[in-house]
Write a structure and sequence with these properties.
With about 350 residues, the protein is mainly α. It has 16 helices and two strands. The protein is globular, with a radius of gyration of 21 Å.
């Protein structure tokens, strides 16, 4: 008979806790991360193309459909494996969960400023460029806000372990509801995105055993899971295109249900070993996230300036593919070279002896 064991402050069946693997990568998690990172690149590519062109294409509707669950799922997946490392001493924890991301944020912020400095200077002058760069230490630059915010989530979760988990989750949910319902925007990315996203990260951490159990059940009953996913797609589309997806409570519900849907969809893909390139993207999602802006912006400029493709939706799709593949190409080109530091944190920037990285970090 299975016994009850404590997990993140709750008591669950020991059979369920075995669904959280102690070591190694998890196929469906990589599929989920791949799906999410492509959705993120698609959003930036599509909205960027449409802003430059002054009109929308068919990809606009794909991006809109993914809005309720795109970032909630990304943060939920990011919290899944935190229970493995949260009991480490603070020095080791900070090294793996704060310094790791801070290194890449600082490095790629500098790279982005180097690329964009002439454009910024034309608008605000070179002193303005220096001011913007100084502000990037407290106000994340553009797309890099995600890896700026993750360490904040990690530290807050570890620092509040003595607080009842249910209370933390309810506070996170209240922040999301207030953020949506009362538009409590401060204009500061870290504060606003913390309010909007922390509940999803904490859900991934708190309910990891249940999430892995869900994936296992989906793989055991794929036909039923397929029907449920079809129903979810109708619900999400109805809410988004009916104008209700940003209502308080409904926004939170759609985010959580959508994250569960991505987990289920990814579990089905992993069961059939379909779309291995998607899994590869998930395994290297940090690479894509850091570098996609370079090939994305270059491809967008070429296609729009030449006008070789008239359909804005097709342009958006090509720019998305270029962003993903271009980022991976940059990574491949720098592996084992002096530029390896672009995607691998050098030993001199480690606080503690380097160990094997855990999946999904």
């Amino acid at each position: 008979m299975p016994s009850n064991v404590p997990v993140n402050g709750f008591h669950v069946s020991s059979q369920m806790t075995t669904s959280v693997p102690p070591h190694g990568r998890v196929d469906w998690v990589d599929y989920a991360k791949g799906f999410c990172i492509i959705m993120v690149v698609m959003m930036h590519s599509t909205l960027g193309v449409e802003a430059e062109a002054g009109r929308e294409g068919f990809m606009h509707y794909v991006v809109a459909f993914a809005t309720p669950f795109r970032m909630p799922d990304f943060f939920l997946i990011s919290g899944l494996f935190l229970a493995r490392v949260i009991d480490r001493d603070w020095r080791t924890f900070l090294d793996r969960k704060v310094v790791h991301f801070a290194y890449f944020y600082l490095l790629w912020t500098a790279i982005q400023f180097a690329v964009k400095a002439p454009h910024f200077a034309a608008e605000v002058g070179w002193w303005g460029v220096l001011r913007l760069y100084a502000e990037s230490f407290i106000e994340p630059l553009g797309i890099l806000w995600f890896i700026y915010l993750l360490p904040v989530f990690f530290v807050v979760t570890k620092a509040t372990r003595a607080v009842p988990p249910a209370l933390i989750w309810l506070l996170g949910a209240a922040l999301e509801i207030a953020h949506v319902g009362f538009d409590l925007s401060t204009g500061w990315t870290v504060i606003d995105e913390f309010a909007a996203r922390f509940v999803y990260f904490y859900t991934g951490y708190l309910l990891a055993p249940w999430i892995f159990a869900l994936a296992a059940r989906v793989q055991a009953r794929p036909a039923l899971a397929g029907l449920a996913l079809a129903g979810w797609a109708l619900l999400d589309g109805f809410a988004v295109f009916g104008g209700w997806s940003k209502l308080p409570l409904l926004s939170l519900g759609l985010g959580l249900i959508g994250a569960a849907a991505v987990v289920s969809f990814s579990a089905l893909l992993a069961k059939a070993s379909l779309f291995d390139p998607l899994r590869f993207c998930g395994k290297n999602s940090i690479v894509i996230y850091l570098a996609f802006f370079l090939p994305m912006a270059a491809t967008r400029t070429v296609l729009l300036n030449t006008g070789m493709i008239a359909d804005i939706g097709v342009v958006s799709l090509i720019v998305t593919a270029a962003g993903v593949l271009g980022a991976l190409a940059i990574w491949w080109a720098t592996r084992g070279t002096r530029l390896d530091f672009l995607f691998v944190r050098p030993a001199r920037f480690w606080l503690t002896p380097r160990l094997a990285l855990q999946p999904a970090e």
